[in-house]
Write a structure and sequence with these properties.
mainly alpha
Length: about 230
């Protein structure tokens, strides 16, 4: 296989990987929830904050105070923070549960409707992905290297005439990867050593200051004794 043929096959493999990635992203986009967990959690926190600011939780907290923390009704031998944890948890469940249920209902309805509306396109994407993966399995590039950035590096090796066969390309990639990892470990070790030296210098500085302060106090005490 000539270098130009190798370069062409690498290019075709990279383009096929890009197509599969694009199709997979489009496919899983249909399952994307309109109200993800983090925004829902932020909304829940804002709602609980409003509840407390408007004193809307006061009746419920009065109920807790009467029937949970009243020593004559339900004596609880808890530390102060234990009461706070119980109240906070109870308020979140009481006033936050509706928000979570509404978010879950909206997510389910929207995703279900989206899946029904795009069932034909999703089937087409599944078939295309399976076909392209099968084609990719017959590529000259091993499965462990099915990545756009990796294949681009392999192409550069051929373009820059550092390699003329696939085996040479893969060997060069592994050498470069190991070199980068070694450099990374060296830089991390140097950073750790620098931090350790800085910490040691700071500790010495503090020790010198403490020693100087002790000497000053001892000198003042000595002068006071002399004056008296």
């Amino acid at each position: 296989m000539t270098s130009s043929e190798l370069l062409q096959q690498l290019k075709e493999t990279r383009e096929l990987v890009q197509i599969i990635k694009s199709q997979s992203n489009e496919y899983y986009e249909f399952y994307k929830m309109p109200l993800p967990f983090l925004p829902t959690l932020i909304l829940l926190g804002a709602w609980i904050f409003v509840i407390f600011q408007l004193n809307l939780a006061k009746p419920f907290m009065s109920f807790l105070d009467t029937f949970i923390f009243n020593p004559f009704v339900a004596p609880l031998d808890l530390p102060h923070y234990g009461n706070a944890i119980i109240v906070g948890t109870a308020v979140v469940f009481q006033y936050g549960a509706p928000i979570l249920l509404i978010a879950a209902f909206i997510n389910k309805q929207v995703v279900s409707q989206r899946l029904r509306a795009n069932a034909k396109r999703m089937m087409e994407l599944r078939n295309n992905i399976e076909r392209d993966i099968d084609a990719l399995s017959h590529s000259i590039v091993p499965e462990d290297y099915w990545d756009e950035s990796i294949i681009e590096k392999l192409e550069k090796y051929v373009t820059n005439k550092r390699a003329s066969t696939l085996k040479e390309c893969l060997n060069l990639y592994e050498q470069d990867r190991m070199h980068e990892e070694t450099i990374g470990r060296i830089e991390a070790a140097e950073a750790a050593a620098f931090a350790a030296r800085a910490e040691a210098a700071s500790a010495r500085k503090q020790a010198d200051y403490a020693r100087s302060e002790a000497e000053r106090l001892e000198s003042e005490a000595y002068e006071n004794r002399r004056n008296h």
